[in-house]
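Why run this: before we spend reagent on co-expression, it is cheaper to look at a predicted model of the complex and decide which construct boundaries make sense. The entries below are exactly what would go into the expression plan.
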Amino acid sequence: MQNNTITIHDIAAALKIDSSTVSRALNNSPRVTQKTKERIWAKAEEMGYQRNVLASNLRKSKTNTLGIIVPRISRYFFSSAIAGIEETAFEAGYNVIICQSLEKLEREKNLIQTLVANRVDGIIMSISMETMDYDHLEGAKKNGIPTVFFDRHCDIPGNNNVLLDDYKGSFDATQHLIAQGCKNIAHLGGPKSLLLYQNRFNGYKDALVQNGYPFRQELVFDSRLMEKDGAEAAQKILGTNTEIDGIFSANDVAAIGAMQYLKGRNVKIPEEIAVTGFSNGPTSAVIEPSLTTVDQSGEKMGKLATELLIKQINSKPKTLSPETIILEPSLIERESTRKKITNPTK
Amino acid sequence: MQNNTITIHDIAAALKIDSSTVSRALNNSPRVTQKTKERIWAKAEEMGYQRNVLASNLRKSKTNTLGIIVPRISRYFFSSAIAGIEETAFEAGYNVIICQSLEKLEREKNLIQTLVANRVDGIIMSISMETMDYDHLEGAKKNGIPTVFFDRHCDIPGNNNVLLDDYKGSFDATQHLIAQGCKNIAHLGGPKSLLLYQNRFNGYKDALVQNGYPFRQELVFDSRLMEKDGAEAAQKILGTNTEIDGIFSANDVAAIGAMQYLKGRNVKIPEEIAVTGFSNGPTSAVIEPSLTTVDQSGEKMGKLATELLIKQINSKPKTLSPETIILEPSLIERESTRKKITNPTK
DNA sequence: CTGTTAGCGCCTTCAG
DNA sequence: CTGAAGGCGCTAACAG
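The model came back. Tokens follow.
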């Protein structure tokens, strides 16, 4: 560890000028001659100067850092969203602090506090499944830190959101199953406290009804949509002799759990039961490579959210009016060799 | 945005004591009476004081933040490693800045610079596929920032590493394919500049030889192991009439690419060609749920790397001697209903 | 265009 | 055990 701590004063002294000029030059201020700038840059380079970001941050009360809170980094949807965020932020000169709430309200509260305390310039987040009151979400806003919600948002006016049209995606996916010949379609749903799952449920329900099928509450299995929840639902479906030939899952993870359970019981996918759900990337290949899924496009949402956030940050203190971007969902059709549902059994 | 900027001086004034005492109390220094502490804590609470982390950081020249550099966040192995890192770091009171090199050397250099400039307390990283000389990796060390490499390390002495025993994992996986009856096993390998891929290759080769099979260079397909690389290799395998009944892939992504190509050509997995590789989590389910893979245990590596790093940070300036942790790989056996390879075809 | 001055908010010697 | 004083390194008025 060399005591390599060259400050602007050192280079000012070496050049017999004032440190404030050095500061300006290093920030490429227009208020310094090009010639002086170049002398300063050269000297800085020569002396191996490195700006002390901490001092700069303190002085400017700005960190050039964005905070991100997601439920769980290792979910493909979130990690791909983060990839998009990081990419966009990096290009705009921002760093990124990533945190996971692990679906816990308590942790979510702490994290927001921490990010505020660390003076991030903005926050991008997806709320946890436990989040039902939104008081703590105001914390950042009160401190003047703009926030953008993506995917999982909350129902308070004045927020920035980047969302998928979950209702439509859900409707289309269910419709797709019906078109394939499914007559009894179960739904693996998430906590209704999240609008997102509410919407996905509504899309499913409406698609049934509009196609002349009855909506049956006993075919709806709400859970936290972990792999084991999907498996449990599948177990119930097989166990209770419920007639089922299709499953529409609100996420891919539960769908995988259900499928693995079914396959272990020698139920053929998709000949006997067709499965679909929201998904993207490699994980969706697990939902049977041949099946159609609703594209959740994490990377795109991440990019859009970051662009929106940066716009909000730069607009301060004018405080741009909040914005909500809703993406059109699209079905990803894989291998066209999909077989028709032929012989629905329980 | 309330001008809510309460400093230690404000609370000192309110209590008619000095700000330095307040500072000590808030840091729970033993050099303040319990009674005074409690008065101060109460007042701080009451006035809604929030420590200014930036000022604190500047003064202490420490940020309580760890930097992480991985090639790509959305790779499941890395996102699960990050989950483990974040978890452990959070418990120890550290924040985490996450960056992706996108396998680019240039970006990797920049990122290290940025992290050093931001005075992170330590760095955890996996080097990019392009990284062949290691000069830039010394940058952090020179600045007294301890670094731990995980999974993809580099061959310079004095580093801290958390690794998998890739040679053994590879050997075991290949052996496993042989035990299943495979006689002609291809290998999808990564850039040999990374020791990791070198070791995985060696394990494969030695397993063949020790079982009395010839090593054939024409069955080795090196690439950057993206999905398309796997598909290309599979195409070559089918195209050139090479006799193959097994594939051992150095990662899961390429294995998925190969499998999807093969399935599209109506080659049955695993009856005609058995595929295995390093993997973990949901992605590995894609490598045919019935097949065995080598567990890469990202979360565990992340945890260990973080613990090691924090140990190094806390040991300063004594500078603990570097450490290398090597994890025993284990094969994940899935569904025992796996079919034997019956009728190997090209 | 450049220099002077005065902090950002906190922590840490050094005295008492 | 507490107070006084100084400075981390940088930037942003305000002058000249």
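Chain A has three domains: 3-51, 65-165+297-329, 166-295+332-337. Residues 298-315 of chain A form the longest helix (18 residues). Bring this page to Monday's planning discussion.
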